[in-house]
Amino acid sequence: MSASTTPKIRLRGLSKAFGAKQVLDGVDLDIQAGHGMVILGGSGSGKSVTIKSILGLIQPDAGIIEIDGRNVLAMNRREREELNDRIGMLFQNAALFDSLPVWENVCFKPLAQKRMTRAQARDKAAEVLAQVGLAGSVGDLYPGELSGGMQKRVGLARAIAGNPEIIFFDEPTTGLDPIMGAVIDGLIVDCVKRLGATAVSITHDMASARRIGDTAAMIHKGRIVWTGPAATLGETGNAMVDQFARGEREGPITMELRK
Ligand SMILES: Nc1ncnc2c1ncn2[C@@H]1O[C@H](COP(=O)(O)OP(=O)(O)OP(=O)(O)O)[C@@H](O)[C@H]1O
Protein backbone atom coordinates (compact mmCIF):
# COMPACT_ATOMS: atom_id res chain seq x y z
CA MET A 1 0.00 0.00 0.00
CA SER A 2 1.47 3.35 -0.97
CA ALA A 3 1.75 6.17 1.55
CA SER A 4 -0.82 8.27 -0.31
CA THR A 5 -3.52 5.64 0.15
CA THR A 6 -2.69 4.73 3.74
CA PRO A 7 -5.71 5.75 5.80
CA LYS A 8 -5.11 8.06 8.74
CA ILE A 9 -7.01 5.58 10.89
CA ARG A 10 -7.57 1.96 9.95
CA LEU A 11 -9.64 -0.47 12.01
CA ARG A 12 -9.84 -4.16 11.20
CA GLY A 13 -11.77 -6.80 13.09
CA LEU A 14 -12.01 -4.65 16.21
CA SER A 15 -13.78 -6.65 18.89
CA LYS A 16 -14.63 -5.97 22.50
CA ALA A 17 -16.91 -7.73 24.96
CA PHE A 18 -17.91 -6.60 28.41
CA GLY A 19 -18.85 -9.76 30.27
CA ALA A 20 -21.28 -11.69 28.08
CA LYS A 21 -22.06 -8.63 25.99
CA GLN A 22 -20.23 -8.51 22.65
CA VAL A 23 -20.20 -4.76 22.03
CA LEU A 24 -17.80 -4.64 19.05
CA ASP A 25 -17.85 -7.71 16.83
CA GLY A 26 -15.36 -7.06 14.07
CA VAL A 27 -15.41 -3.35 13.27
CA ASP A 28 -13.73 -2.56 9.93
CA LEU A 29 -13.33 1.11 9.07
CA ASP A 30 -10.93 3.32 7.10
CA ILE A 31 -10.77 7.03 7.82
CA GLN A 32 -8.80 9.03 5.28
CA ALA A 33 -6.49 11.87 6.28
CA GLY A 34 -8.17 15.26 6.33
CA HIS A 35 -11.66 13.78 6.15
CA GLY A 36 -14.59 14.17 8.48
CA MET A 37 -16.06 10.82 9.52
CA VAL A 38 -19.29 10.64 11.46
CA ILE A 39 -20.13 7.44 13.33
CA LEU A 40 -23.83 6.74 13.72
CA GLY A 41 -25.62 4.06 15.66
CA GLY A 42 -28.22 3.42 18.31
CA SER A 43 -27.64 4.05 21.99
CA GLY A 44 -25.27 1.47 23.38
CA SER A 45 -24.15 0.31 19.92
CA GLY A 46 -20.47 0.81 20.70
CA LYS A 47 -19.65 4.20 19.18
CA SER A 48 -17.87 5.46 22.29
CA VAL A 49 -16.14 2.12 22.83
CA THR A 50 -14.76 2.40 19.27
CA ILE A 51 -13.40 5.89 19.89
CA LYS A 52 -12.03 4.99 23.32
CA SER A 53 -10.26 2.01 21.77
CA ILE A 54 -8.55 4.29 19.21
CA LEU A 55 -7.58 6.67 22.02
CA GLY A 56 -6.06 3.80 24.01
CA LEU A 57 -8.54 4.19 26.87
CA ILE A 58 -10.05 0.74 26.23
CA GLN A 59 -8.05 -2.35 25.32
CA PRO A 60 -9.87 -4.29 22.59
CA ASP A 61 -10.03 -8.09 22.80
CA ALA A 62 -9.00 -8.52 19.17
CA GLY A 63 -8.39 -6.58 15.98
CA ILE A 64 -6.10 -4.01 14.46
CA ILE A 65 -5.90 -0.27 15.04
CA GLU A 66 -3.47 1.58 12.80
CA ILE A 67 -2.76 5.28 12.68
CA ASP A 68 -0.65 6.40 9.71
CA GLY A 69 -0.07 2.71 9.07
CA ARG A 70 1.41 2.08 12.53
CA ASN A 71 -0.04 -0.56 14.80
CA VAL A 72 -1.02 1.45 17.88
CA LEU A 73 -1.85 -1.62 19.98
CA ALA A 74 1.81 -2.62 19.85
CA MET A 75 3.09 0.78 21.00
CA ASN A 76 4.92 1.19 24.26
CA ARG A 77 3.79 3.79 26.74
CA ARG A 78 6.08 6.56 25.47
CA GLU A 79 5.04 6.01 21.85
CA ARG A 80 1.39 6.00 22.89
CA GLU A 81 1.81 9.28 24.78
CA GLU A 82 3.55 10.87 21.79
CA LEU A 83 0.67 9.72 19.60
CA ASN A 84 -1.91 11.09 22.03
CA ASP A 85 -0.19 14.48 21.86
CA ARG A 86 -1.22 14.54 18.18
CA ILE A 87 -4.87 13.84 19.04
CA GLY A 88 -7.50 16.26 20.36
CA MET A 89 -10.81 15.36 21.91
CA LEU A 90 -14.01 17.28 22.53
CA PHE A 91 -15.83 15.32 25.19
CA GLN A 92 -19.56 15.09 25.62
CA ASN A 93 -20.67 17.99 27.88
CA ALA A 94 -17.23 19.55 27.24
CA ALA A 95 -15.90 17.86 30.45
CA LEU A 96 -14.23 20.98 31.82
CA PHE A 97 -12.61 21.14 35.24
CA ASP A 98 -14.93 23.31 37.34
CA SER A 99 -12.19 24.34 39.76
CA LEU A 100 -9.94 25.78 37.06
CA PRO A 101 -10.41 29.02 35.13
CA VAL A 102 -11.11 28.71 31.43
CA TRP A 103 -7.55 29.53 30.34
CA GLU A 104 -6.14 26.72 32.49
CA ASN A 105 -8.75 24.36 31.07
CA VAL A 106 -7.77 25.29 27.51
CA CYS A 107 -4.07 24.74 28.17
CA PHE A 108 -4.50 21.94 30.67
CA LYS A 109 -2.33 19.45 28.80
CA PRO A 110 0.74 21.62 28.08
CA LEU A 111 0.59 22.95 31.65
CA ALA A 112 0.37 19.44 33.11
CA GLN A 113 3.27 18.34 30.90
CA LYS A 114 5.20 21.49 31.86
CA ARG A 115 5.63 22.36 28.19
CA MET A 116 4.47 25.95 28.80
CA THR A 117 4.90 28.52 31.51
CA ARG A 118 1.70 29.89 33.00
CA ALA A 119 2.27 33.17 31.16
CA GLN A 120 2.69 31.35 27.84
CA ALA A 121 -0.43 29.29 28.55
CA ARG A 122 -2.49 32.41 29.21
CA ASP A 123 -1.41 33.90 25.87
CA LYS A 124 -2.01 30.64 24.03
CA ALA A 125 -5.46 30.27 25.63
CA ALA A 126 -6.43 33.80 24.52
CA GLU A 127 -5.27 33.01 20.97
CA VAL A 128 -7.25 29.76 20.78
CA LEU A 129 -10.33 31.24 22.47
CA ALA A 130 -10.38 33.89 19.74
CA GLN A 131 -10.44 31.11 17.12
CA VAL A 132 -13.68 29.80 18.64
CA GLY A 133 -15.19 33.27 18.86
CA LEU A 134 -14.61 33.97 22.55
CA ALA A 135 -13.06 37.13 24.02
CA GLY A 136 -9.79 36.72 25.88
CA SER A 137 -11.53 37.90 29.07
CA VAL A 138 -13.54 34.65 29.08
CA GLY A 139 -10.26 32.99 30.03
CA ASP A 140 -10.58 34.30 33.57
CA LEU A 141 -14.11 32.92 34.08
CA TYR A 142 -14.88 29.52 35.58
CA PRO A 143 -16.82 26.85 33.64
CA GLY A 144 -19.82 27.23 35.96
CA GLU A 145 -20.17 30.83 34.83
CA LEU A 146 -20.56 29.85 31.15
CA SER A 147 -23.59 28.90 29.07
CA GLY A 148 -23.68 25.45 27.46
CA GLY A 149 -22.68 26.89 24.10
CA MET A 150 -19.72 28.73 25.63
CA GLN A 151 -18.64 25.56 27.44
CA LYS A 152 -18.65 23.71 24.12
CA ARG A 153 -16.51 26.45 22.59
CA VAL A 154 -14.05 26.18 25.46
CA GLY A 155 -14.02 22.39 25.02
CA LEU A 156 -13.34 22.93 21.33
CA ALA A 157 -10.56 25.43 22.14
CA ARG A 158 -8.96 22.82 24.40
CA ALA A 159 -9.29 20.17 21.70
CA ILE A 160 -7.49 22.29 19.08
CA ALA A 161 -4.92 23.97 21.37
CA GLY A 162 -2.22 21.41 20.60
CA ASN A 163 -2.69 21.64 16.79
CA PRO A 164 -3.83 18.00 16.62
CA GLU A 165 -3.79 15.89 13.47
CA ILE A 166 -6.84 13.93 14.61
CA ILE A 167 -9.77 15.28 16.60
CA PHE A 168 -12.59 13.26 18.14
CA PHE A 169 -15.94 14.91 18.78
CA ASP A 170 -18.35 13.08 21.08
CA GLU A 171 -21.88 14.41 20.54
CA PRO A 172 -20.72 18.01 20.05
CA THR A 173 -24.20 19.52 19.72
CA THR A 174 -26.06 17.55 22.40
CA GLY A 175 -27.87 19.84 24.80
CA LEU A 176 -27.57 22.94 22.59
CA ASP A 177 -30.42 24.74 20.87
CA PRO A 178 -30.49 24.18 17.08
CA ILE A 179 -28.95 27.53 16.23
CA MET A 180 -26.13 27.17 18.74
CA GLY A 181 -25.66 23.63 17.43
CA ALA A 182 -25.20 25.02 13.93
CA VAL A 183 -22.76 27.63 15.25
CA ILE A 184 -20.68 24.98 17.02
CA ASP A 185 -20.71 22.81 13.88
CA GLY A 186 -19.50 25.79 11.85
CA LEU A 187 -16.64 26.36 14.30
CA ILE A 188 -15.76 22.67 14.23
CA VAL A 189 -15.61 22.67 10.42
CA ASP A 190 -13.52 25.87 10.40
CA CYS A 191 -11.09 24.63 13.04
CA VAL A 192 -10.69 21.22 11.46
CA LYS A 193 -10.09 22.79 8.05
CA ARG A 194 -7.56 25.27 9.45
CA LEU A 195 -5.61 22.44 11.06
CA GLY A 196 -6.03 20.09 8.09
CA ALA A 197 -7.05 17.54 10.71
CA THR A 198 -8.90 14.27 10.44
CA ALA A 199 -12.16 14.54 12.39
CA VAL A 200 -14.09 11.63 13.86
CA SER A 201 -17.44 12.50 15.35
CA ILE A 202 -20.21 10.69 17.15
CA THR A 203 -23.59 12.32 16.87
CA HIS A 204 -27.31 11.54 17.03
CA ASP A 205 -28.05 14.87 15.37
CA MET A 206 -28.52 14.28 11.64
CA ALA A 207 -28.32 17.96 10.69
CA SER A 208 -25.00 18.10 12.52
CA ALA A 209 -23.82 14.86 10.89
CA ARG A 210 -24.43 16.33 7.43
CA ARG A 211 -22.62 19.54 8.36
CA ILE A 212 -19.52 18.10 9.98
CA GLY A 213 -19.19 14.81 8.10
CA ASP A 214 -17.82 14.07 4.67
CA THR A 215 -18.47 10.40 5.22
CA ALA A 216 -20.79 8.62 7.63
CA ALA A 217 -20.53 5.08 8.96
CA MET A 218 -23.28 3.22 10.75
CA ILE A 219 -22.52 0.71 13.46
CA HIS A 220 -25.10 -1.96 14.22
CA LYS A 221 -24.76 -5.17 16.19
CA GLY A 222 -21.07 -4.49 16.69
CA ARG A 223 -20.16 -4.03 13.03
CA ILE A 224 -20.05 -1.26 10.46
CA VAL A 225 -23.05 -2.03 8.25
CA TRP A 226 -22.83 0.99 5.93
CA THR A 227 -20.50 3.80 4.94
CA GLY A 228 -21.31 6.55 2.48
CA PRO A 229 -21.51 10.28 1.94
CA ALA A 230 -22.89 12.09 5.00
CA ALA A 231 -24.84 14.41 2.68
CA THR A 232 -27.06 11.50 1.64
CA LEU A 233 -28.18 10.54 5.16
CA GLY A 234 -31.91 9.88 5.13
CA GLU A 235 -31.81 9.11 1.41
CA THR A 236 -29.05 6.56 1.17
CA GLY A 237 -31.18 3.73 -0.18
CA ASN A 238 -30.06 1.58 2.76
CA ALA A 239 -33.27 0.91 4.70
CA MET A 240 -31.53 0.61 8.05
CA VAL A 241 -29.54 3.81 7.70
CA ASP A 242 -32.49 5.76 6.34
CA GLN A 243 -34.76 4.58 9.16
CA PHE A 244 -32.15 5.67 11.67
CA ALA A 245 -31.46 9.00 10.00
CA ARG A 246 -35.16 9.82 9.76
CA GLY A 247 -35.93 8.56 13.25
CA GLU A 248 -38.70 6.25 12.07
CA ARG A 249 -40.23 3.67 14.39
CA GLU A 250 -40.95 1.19 11.61
CA GLY A 251 -38.16 -0.44 9.68
CA PRO A 252 -35.47 -3.08 9.83
CA ILE A 253 -34.19 -1.83 13.19
CA THR A 254 -36.81 -3.27 15.51
CA MET A 255 -37.64 -2.09 18.98
CA GLU A 256 -36.48 -5.49 20.20
CA LEU A 257 -32.94 -4.67 19.10
CA ARG A 258 -33.11 -1.22 20.58
CA LYS A 259 -33.87 -2.31 24.18
N1 LIG B 1 -16.16 0.21 30.74
C1 LIG B 1 -17.26 -0.50 30.47
N2 LIG B 1 -17.63 -1.55 31.23
C2 LIG B 1 -18.73 -2.28 30.94
N3 LIG B 1 -19.56 -2.03 29.90
C3 LIG B 1 -19.25 -0.99 29.12
C4 LIG B 1 -18.10 -0.17 29.36
N4 LIG B 1 -18.06 0.79 28.39
C5 LIG B 1 -19.13 0.58 27.60
N5 LIG B 1 -19.84 -0.48 28.04
C6 LIG B 1 -21.05 -1.02 27.40
O1 LIG B 1 -20.82 -1.12 26.02
C7 LIG B 1 -22.00 -0.80 25.30
C8 LIG B 1 -21.69 0.26 24.27
O2 LIG B 1 -21.38 1.49 24.94
P1 LIG B 1 -21.01 2.82 24.18
O3 LIG B 1 -20.78 3.84 25.26
O4 LIG B 1 -19.92 2.60 23.21
O5 LIG B 1 -22.34 3.13 23.41
P2 LIG B 1 -22.66 4.32 22.42
O6 LIG B 1 -22.92 3.71 21.09
O7 LIG B 1 -21.60 5.36 22.49
O8 LIG B 1 -24.03 4.81 23.02
P3 LIG B 1 -24.71 6.25 23.29
O9 LIG B 1 -25.17 6.71 21.95
O10 LIG B 1 -25.86 5.92 24.18
O11 LIG B 1 -23.66 7.12 23.93
C9 LIG B 1 -23.05 -0.40 26.32
O12 LIG B 1 -23.89 -1.50 26.58
C10 LIG B 1 -22.23 -0.08 27.54
O13 LIG B 1 -22.95 -0.35 28.72
Automatic annotation (TrEMBL):
GO MF annotation, one: ATP binding
Keywords: ATP-binding, Nucleotide-binding, Transport
Repeat keyword on record: no
Entries under Pfam families matching the protein: ABC_tran (PF00005)
Location of the ABC transporter domain: 9-246
UniProt name for this protein: ATP-binding cassette domain-containing protein
